[in-house]
């Protein structure tokens, strides 16, 4: 949290890019994104249309929108900014990369890193979920590609999910398939979406659901052709905007606050758990072998 | 509670109307209903058939069976009487008004009233739910008309719901649409009926479900032609009566007691919340404007 | 617990039957099963195939695999043994009796028995559930016959349920129909399987679901022809085995531990409840009449 706040402070000193006529769009200035990444482009593009009150966040971190510390920090900063902007009532998450919404947590953040760095990373993962699941905005995932693990978490933390009707795209919490375990707040979010029994199967089997399977169990709310995903989200948002914000926000909070509070109450323990697990020799070795395999596959 | 008990005491002093041959029916005597309302007729008609053990409660408070303090007090008194009557094993709620089961809480009880009166009203709303959701009788809603907000709460507090198969009738907790928020025990009852995810959508959007949508999500259990709603409830009740009462009651209590206890533990705070919200100038102004609009619509 | 442990101790002193080439199978030696039952055969046959890592437990306690104290003790011993066997990753429960998976708790254990014996019996019922619901193995019920009450509990305590597609076989917690009540942990297990609303109906009505109804509400996961039940379980198990055990086990525990802990925290109170209920004169009289009726039916 301290880290994110420090970054937020740094960010607000450097200022944002210029406002457009109706709304604004921004990319993080280099001073923020450069200190960790040589890429000069930001990982998330945000466009707010002040006519509609809808912000679109496009993930543009090639190749697969992995949730790196830089990505997550940008995400938290963008969320903070949008929450404070009275002209913004709704947020749509979508991907600018082909075939993938987000591939989930960046495995490079878990390999050969110091415990301090792992801890900072995990705090940023928590922060992403806390801000998104508890957002006062109407949040929608326009899922225009596959969405495993952390990508699935982002999607199910929104208020509504529209997915491209493409049998090659899948979504799910597939952690067990990789020998790791989704933390309890991933599980809680999944349970609140598809219920206890389906979550039991989903987590034990690490099942990746095809788009039509996902619709059937309620993991996503609607399937549309790929080129209609974003526009359908926009139209659906208009319907949600007919509800007075204040009443909707209290209703949402009533549903979601209990499980957010659960994480807030055990946040440090959850970080400790993650760090002690991920820094184990055996786990580091497994990840190393997995990365070797990936390299060979590419070659 | 104290108020309801005082009213119950007053009620039992004045006595009830005569018993019929097989069972009884009653209407509240004037001394009870008159002190608040000039209407000489009672708002709820209760008929108990001691041959079948089934009581039918007909809501007859024109035009839309609004849940006023008088209505709720009559309801609590009737429930108390039926619970104590060993000849009564089941209760069917239905409407004697055309096209509506109940329109929910009476908005006039929330406009221009003293905090004391608002507090008394809210306690009566709580009391209705506590008695109905925790009833030892088999309770069924014969939903022969629309059933928004508090009307929906009454329906989902029963053990079983049979609704008229009429696409013009709708049911749901639509509070957010009016800029207000369903309290946590409305939410808990809804969650226990349709699950977490559907409740999240239902409450955030204040969605009114058509009868067929309601069946699909499990908000009602069965659709039948309008003229069969009551008779189907009677037939279904006969099936429930094959189960020994005592075992069924303990099973029911095991399922429902936890969320009733939640309200009992925070009943006064819940009343305070309601009163402080509803007596706000801004809210009173909104209600006033809403009532003006209704008047104009009629004219 | 103490009793089960004593029995386990006795059991391990007497030793097990010989191992087969690839895996083993055992039947409890007489010294264990005889002291309560004159039958020389064991009530459960266990076969572990160490090639596949799958153990099959066949219930062979005629006529209907009632859960007697002896049966439950054998079950606990077998579970203990399999959990400790590193060659065993999965367990399939099925019946060697025609037309029935298990008829549930043995009513003879509840009739004319001392409070001490009733207490020992109930502890063994709890132990069965704690071991099965919390098993680290992949557990599957190959339901090749009817499965009421305690039989249903065993099935829903597994990770996956495959049932014979036979309309004459039924499954459900039908306790209320007999005038008794499923304890809270039966209820919790049911809720985790089919959700709150269906459990409310199921428990209040003591409903026995046909196989196709059971599939529809998610009480079982799959229907296959009767002669394919076991082989389908084997094939399904192979799919579950592709998931690393450790990650799957932690995920399972995350889902199930909370309700197991609830029973562990109130185990003695739960036993007291059962004993004081079952030893009541009125209940003993009811059971006696029920047994008389059964006798007459046979004659």
From TrEMBL, chains A, B, C:
The protein's matches in InterPro entries, at most eight in alphabetical order, are given as: ClpP/crotonase-like_dom_sf, Enoyl-CoA_hyd/isom_CS, Enoyl-CoA_hydra/iso
Cross-referenced SUPFAM superfamilies: ClpP/crotonase (SSF52096)
**EC numbers:** 5.3.3.8
Q: Its domain of life?
A: Eukaryota
The record's function comment reads: Key enzyme of fatty acid beta-oxidation. Able to isomerize both 3-cis (3Z) and 3-trans (3E) double bonds into the 2-trans (2E) form in a range of enoyl-CoA species, with a preference for (3Z)-enoyl-CoAs over (3E)-enoyl-CoAs. The catalytic efficiency of this enzyme is not affected by the fatty acyl chain length.
Report which reactions are catalysed by this protein: a (3E)-enoyl-CoA = a 4-saturated (2E)-enoyl-CoA; (3Z)-decenoyl-CoA = (2E)-decenoyl-CoA; (2E)-tetradecenoyl-CoA = (3Z)-tetradecenoyl-CoA; (3Z)-octenoyl-CoA = (2E)-octenoyl-CoA
GO BP annotations listed: fatty acid beta-oxidation
| Transmembrane annotation, as ranges | none
State the organism named in the record: Chanos chanos (Milkfish)
Q: Which family does it belong to?
A: Belongs to the enoyl-CoA hydratase/isomerase family.
* Protein name as it appears in the record: Enoyl-CoA delta isomerase 1, mitochondrial
On subunit structure and binding partners, the annotation says: Homotrimer.
Keywords for the protein's UniProt record, in alphabetical order = Acetylation, Fatty acid metabolism, Isomerase, Lipid metabolism, Mitochondrion, Transit peptide
Question: In the UniProt record, which is one GO cellular component term?
Answer: mitochondrial matrix
Note whether Thylakoid occurs among the keywords. Answer: no
EC class of this enzyme? isomerase
Describe which pathway this protein belongs to, using the record's wording.
Lipid metabolism; fatty acid beta-oxidation
GO MF term list: delta(3)-delta(2)-enoyl-CoA isomerase activity
**Where in or outside the cell is it found?**
Mitochondrion matrix
């Amino acid at each position: 949290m301290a880290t994110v706040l420090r970054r937020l402070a740094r960010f607000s000193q450097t200022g944002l890019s210029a406002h457009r006529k109706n709304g604004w769009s921004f990319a993080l200035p280099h001073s923020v994104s450069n200190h960790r990444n040589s890429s000069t482009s930001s990982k998330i593009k945000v466009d707010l249309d002040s006519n509609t009150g809808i912000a679109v966040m496009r993930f543009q971190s090639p190749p697969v929108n992995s949730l790196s510390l830089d990505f997550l920090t940008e995400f938290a900063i963008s969320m903070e900014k949008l929450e404070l902007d009275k002209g913004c009532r709704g947020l749509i998450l979508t991907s600018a990369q082909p075939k993938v919404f987000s591939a989930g947590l960046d495995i490079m953040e878990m390999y050969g890193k110091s415990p301090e760095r792992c801890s900072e990373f995990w705090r940023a993962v928590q922060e992403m979920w806390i801000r998104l699941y508890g957002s006062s905005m109407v949040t929608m995932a326009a899922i225009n590609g596959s969405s495993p693990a952390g990508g699935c978490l982002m999607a199910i933390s929104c208020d509504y999910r529209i997915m491209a009707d493409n049998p090659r795209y899948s979504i799910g919490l597939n952690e067990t398939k990789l020998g790791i375990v989704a933390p309890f707040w991933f599980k809680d979010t999944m349970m609140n979406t598809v219920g206890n029994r389906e979550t039991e199967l989903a987590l034990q089997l690490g099942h990746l659901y095809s788009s039509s399977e996902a619709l059937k169990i309620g993991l996503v709310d609607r399937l549309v052709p790929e080129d209609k995903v974003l526009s359908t989200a926009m139209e659906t948002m208009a319907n949600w905007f007919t509800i007075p914000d204040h009443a909707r926000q209290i209703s949402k909070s009533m549903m979601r606050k209990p499980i957010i509070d659960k994480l807030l109450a055990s946040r440090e323990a959850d970080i400790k758990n993650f760090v002690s697990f991920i820094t184990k020799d055996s786990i580091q070795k497994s990840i190393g072998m997995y990365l070797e395999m990936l390299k060979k596959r590419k070659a």
